[in-house]
Each structure stands twice: as C-alpha cells, then as structure tokens.
Design goal:
mainly alpha; two-stranded antiparallel sheet; 12 helices; 4% strand; DNA-binding; transcription
DNA sequence: GGCGTGACGGTTGAG
DNA sequence: CACTCAACCGTCACG
C-alpha cells in the first residue's frame, strides 16, 4: 500500500495529453487555479485542457464546480458520514422517554428541535429515534408502550446530512456562486496563508468545506505571484502557457506537493486548523 | 471539434 | 490496528 502510493505519487501517470496525474488524487491547487484563471480570461475549456494537459472532462468538472460553488478546491475525500445519534442526543431521548414513557418518536423529534438539542440539519429521523428507543433504551418498555416503529428507514435519511451540518468536516458557510474577480478582491491580503516552500497561497478555512468566493478570488489573485521552480520549468503569464512548460509545471507541482507535505511549513497551518484536512498528509500517505 | 456526462479504477479517512 | 465503505478524485470514451 505505502509502496504503491510512493511509486504512484513520485512518478504519477501520464494521460492522453501527456500531462502527469496521480490517479485518485485531486489536481494540485495551482493547476486548479490556472484552469479557473484561464477560463476567466476567456480561454476556451478545450484550450485550457490542451495547455495544461488536463483532460477536458476534468476542466469541465472543475469549472462547473467553480461556477456552482465558487470554490476551486476539491471536495472532502474519504471519511464517514457524521453521526446524528450522538451520546448527548441519545441521553436526551432517554431522558424524555423516562419522563414520559408514552411519548412518541415524532414528539421526541420535535422536542429535540424545540429544546435546541438538534437543529433541522442534524435532528435524527423518526425511525432513527425509534431505533434508539428500541436498541439503546430498552425494547421491552418500548414495545409495551406500543411505540415500536416497524419501518426502519435508516437507509433513507441521508437528506439530513446538509452542507451546513455542524461537524468539522462539512461544516462552514454554504457554497456561494462564483463571481467575477474584482479589484478589491484581488487586493485582499487577509485570511490567507502563504506556503513558504512554494509561494502558493492557501485559503484558511477553519472548516472542511468550500471557501467563499472571496477566498477563491484571493487565491486567484495570488496565483499570479507564483514563482517558478529554479529548474528549467517556467510559469508563463496568464494565457501564454506553452504545452511543455505546462507539463513540467504539472509534474513539478506533484513533486513539490509531495515534498511539502512532510515539511513543518505545511504541517504548521494544518495543526492550526487553517488548511482543509483533505489536503493534509496522512499517516498512510503524504500526498495532498 | 467542443462539451457534458457516466463508467471506471483509484485514494482517502471516519467508524 | 486491520478492515469496511461511502465519499471523493481524474481519465477516458461516448454521444
């Protein structure tokens, strides 16, 4: 596993356009930035695809996401859905049940909302509450009171996992549509963090979700200040990318991200919770 | 030729 | 701590 990761992340794979990519991993933020940047300069997606040597499907996907959410960042990879039946919620349900053995599951649900234990985004479904009553509080009492709910729709309550569900991974402000870059946004300097190894700006969301369009604009503004690596790799000005530098640049970014991932400069913002954990190195892999 | 989209093989991380 | 599984990824091929 580790061996395979190291091999893949070191060498990557080459797509039909000659670009280097790592299967299963997001493109580097700098590439994503370039895609959005070039699109806003009026470069056609097909040309962006050729210039950056990224598949047009990927360009299409990134631009579509940007227009929809205002973010260029990849989504949160991995992990499990948040649990709504936290110990606190279970304890509260148990308390309600003990105080009023005849209470219905839907009444408990209403109480959870009314009492501020849950909000509309993380309140358990009626069937979930029934399951809690059945499994965690005692089936005997539950059945004797005739409140057993035979239908278990536990597979159907995914709607409760909202984008603003308040847990560390998906919490945060709702997505905002993309807006044209403004000069004021371009000149913003707060709310960002510069990676000193690469001079690539990093947004500083304290959540694992989308940054605001301001954050994206900020990112875009600083992508212009990206410094090319000292080797033969160059980073042309917007709209003037040539194919080969793009490939080198692409490949360089993978190597650089791989190297950065184990440095204190990269780990520091992560430890301070200002970089999306999705972009953090893990114990299994150091890739972003 | 350009673009949207689904299948595919892959990675990730909470549980 | 190995495993599961559902989230995500980019590429590719098709229409």
């Amino acid at each position: 596993m580790v061996k395979k990761n190291q091999k893949t992340q070191t060498y990557g794979e080459v797509n039909q356009l000659g670009g280097v990519f790592v299967n299963g991993r997001p493109l580097p933020n700098a590439i994503r930035l370039r895609i959005v940047e070039l699109a806003q300069l009026g470069v056609r997606p097909c040309d962006i695809s050729r210039q950056l040597r990224v598949s047009h499907g990927c360009v299409s996907k990134i631009l579509a996401r940007y227009h929809e959410t205002g973010s260029i960042l990849p989504g949160a990879i991995g992990g499990s859905k948040p649990r709504v039946t936290t110990p606190k919620v279970v304890a509260y349900i148990k308390d309600l049940k003990q105080k009023d053995p005849g209470i219905f599951a839907w009444e408990i649900r209403d109480r959870l909302l009314a009492d501020g234990i849950c909000d509309k985004y993380n309140v358990p479904s009626v069937s979930s509450i029934s399951r809690i009553l059945r499994n965690k509080i005692g089936s005997a009492v539950h059945h004797l009171n005739g409140h057993y709910h035979p239908y278990d729709s536990s597979k159907d309550h995914r709607h409760i996992y909202s984008a603003i569900y308040p847990y560390p991974c998906a919490a945060g402000p709702p997505p905002q549509p993309a807006a044209p870059l403004s000069q004021s946004a371009m000149s913003m300097t707060s709310g960002k963090l510069i990676n000193h190894n690469s001079n690539i700006p990093t947004v500083t969301p304290s959540f694992r979700g989308w940054p605001t369009s301001h954050a994206v604009s900020d990112l875009l503004s600083h992508s212009m200040t990206f410094r090319p690596p000292p080797q033969s790799v160059s980073m042309p000005l917007s709209g003037q990318l040539s194919a080969d530098p793009a490939q080198n640049y692409n490949y360089y970014m993978y190597l650089q991200n791989h190297q950065n991932s184990v440095t204190a400069n990269t780990l520091s913002p992560i430890m301070h919770g200002v970089v999306t954990p999705n972009l953090c190195p893990t114990s299994h892999s150091a890739a972003i």
